[in-house]
């Protein structure tokens, strides 16, 4: 018995010396830019499922379950602190104008120092609130900045601007 071998006839590309044509549609596209000028992907990556990403974020960050409430609370605190800084700044300038007219008055100087100290403390609190809002937007709210553990909701309820968990906060002191 003789084996009969069927041989494929060369196609036009093979006759021209360019080799065989691709046999699968996935391999048929050229590598490089497409006609629109955008690079082609060799291996298309699936788009991430937004629901899965959100679930993972909430799992890693328990405070994320109530992000809209935390945002509303932090924004209200930000507005109140901004108002306090503005009022204290105006009070300081008024007291400074009165103190300039009465250069010997120790009470006026003490009042200026008191207002200045309260203004600085309120400005720091405002900056802490702004940082908490930034962490909220970046998805890091409710996570310790040092160990990355979740900050308990009870701690956040007392101080939503908290950066550290209880353990790390006591170590920093």
Verbal overview:
It is a single chain. With 173 residues, the chain is mainly alpha-helical. It has a domain at 63-141. 58% of the residues lie in helices and 0% in strands. The protein is built from 7 helices and no strands. It has helices at 12-15, 25-28, 50-60, 67-101, 106-138, 153-158, 166-172. The N and C termini lie far apart (93 Å). Residues 23-32 have low confidence and may be disordered.
Write down the overall geometry. Answer: elongated
Structural class of the secondary structure composition?
A: mainly alpha
**Roughly how many Å is the radius of gyration?**
33 Å
* Helix share, percent: 55-70%
% residues in beta strands:
under 5%
Low-confidence region ranges:
23-32
N to C succession of SSEs: HHHHHHH
For the secondary structure, the number of strands is: 0
Major sheet: none
Mean of all residue-level pLDDT scores: 75
Q: What is the count of DSSP helices, taking H or I runs of 4+ residues?
A: 7
Distance between the termini: 93 Å
Q: Which key phrases capture this entry?
A:
173 residues, 7 helices, 0% strand, single chain, mainly alpha, 58% helix, elongated
